[in-house]
Amino acid sequence: MVGGGGRLPARVSVPAPDRLGRGDVRRLLEANGLAPSKALGQHFVVDPNTIGRIVRLAAIGEGEQVLEIGPGLGSLTLGLAATGAPVTAVEIDGDLVGVLAALLPPSVRVVHADALGCDWPALLGGGRWVVVANLPYNVATPLVIRLLQEAPAVGRMVVMVQKEAGERLAATPGSKAYGAVTVRVAYYATARLAGEVAPEVFLPRPNVASALVELHRRPAPAVPAEVASYDELDRLVRAGFGGRRKMLRRSLAGLVDAAAFEAAGIPGTARAEDLDVVAWGKLAACQRSIASPRPPS
Q1: Average pLDDT of the residues in 199-223
Q2: Is the separation of the CB atoms in 76 and 132 below 8 Å?
Q3: For the chain, what percent of residues have pLDDT higher than 70?
Q4: Measured between alpha carbons, how far is residue 214 from residues 12, 149, 189, 253 in Å?
Q5: Which of 53, 127, 173, 261 has the highest CB neighbour count under 10 A?
Q6: Predicted confidence (pLDDT) per residue in 108-124, tens digit
Q7: CA distances from 81 to 19, 69, 86, 105, 108 (A)
Q8: Do 75 and 133 belong together in one domain?
Q9: 61 and 201 co-located in one domain
Q10: Which residues lie across from 217 on neighbouring strands?
Q11: Domain assignment of residue 57, yes or no
Q12: Helix crossing, 230-242 with 277-291: angle to 10°?
């Protein structure tokens, strides 16, 4: 089934295997007059063992629906469909949508759309969803953040991203990779690195290694809305990491009063990477309290 742009049949089809190796992917590309798009960051997985590894890590449970973003030629999609779970695959490249329509089983819904512009609640509807995807390098981080913000039906993600991006998503306070992205993710979810993926399993071969990242949505945000809103927290986080090497009393000058640092129990000499998401929320809450004191009763 194809949605979003109508059915786009493949110009030339080849026998559809139940899994795709390097030779299968090359034949599909050649048969349809296609080549991986650099502009779209396309790197197709061509190693069945890697596909099996991702599917096992996803551990799709009974009643879960699968969202795949950037299915490419369907290597991972076939592995996900083989679990018996319903799969929705969102692909921006109209030429690939035609190949997918000819290759994939009827249990897979193919949607021709830009994932960065999707109305996720409308597309996903109800139920429990898990994202399993080889995300294009150039949009991986903003996609993860958007899904956490806009798709509450997504409870888990297993995503393959550039190794450096994966380290940022799952970093711990005080580490070199820890940054504003880490705090934004931690507001909504826990994240961990689940393994490294070598460049050799892709076509074309990227210049960097990839990483598998597993994310689990928290039952509630790490900082309750009544303590501090996401926007209040993010405003401070952006400023704090914008002056990463500065002490917070300098990078947050004009945003956070000295009294708020004291009330939060956070020294002004601390740096942005020293604070976990809860500490950032506490600082935002104390600044809110000082900026908007309660009227006398």
Answers
A1: 97
A2: yes
A3: 92
A4: 37, 17, 10, 36
A5: 261
A6: 999 999 999 999 999 99
A7: 11, 14, 7, 8, 7
A8: yes
A9: yes
A10: 189
A11: yes
A12: 110
Q: Residue holding tokens 């004191």?
A: 293
- Reading the block at residue 60, the tokens are 């799709």
Residues ≥6 apart with Cβ < 8 Å to 87: 65, 66, 67, 68, 77, 80, 81, 107, 108, 109
How large a percentage of the chain has pLDDT more than 90? Answer: 89
Tokens 């996401």 belong to residue: 230
Mean of pLDDT over the chain: 92
What tokens appear for 237 in the block?
Answer: 């986080």
Q: Which domain holds residue 237?
A: 230-291
What is the side-by-side order of every strand in the sheet holding 154-162? 2-3, 108-112, 87-91, 64-69, 128-134, 154-162, 210-217, 189-197
Has residue 223 been placed in a domain? no
Mark whether 110 and 149 lie in a shared domain: yes
